[in-house]
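Let's sit down with a protein and look at its sequence and fold side by side. Once you have written the record down, we can walk along the chain together.
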Amino acid sequence: MNRTVSATEARIHFGEIMRKAKSGPVIVERDGKADVVVISKQEYDQLVAASSPPDWRQLLKEAHESIRTALSNRQLPDPAEIINQGREERDDQLLNSLR
């Protein structure tokens, strides 16, 4: 259950607001409009953890593991060989187009 208090009440009774925030969010209104929300540190930590982007290093590690599993010990050709083969095919196509 959300509790709503005025900014003046929150200022005067801040200790009480802190205690209430441990059991649920407290909405602080200014000029009759919700302005801020006071939440517990535990709830804040959960929100931050849920909204933080995953670590790119961990994502890369997971991608590598996924690729290794998908390859199941097959060896990929040397990248230099693939590049050279592509260049040779391109050169052949260019030569054929000039004839």
About this structure: The domain at 3-48 is CATH 3.40.1620.10 (YefM-like fold). The chain is about 60% helix and 15% strand.
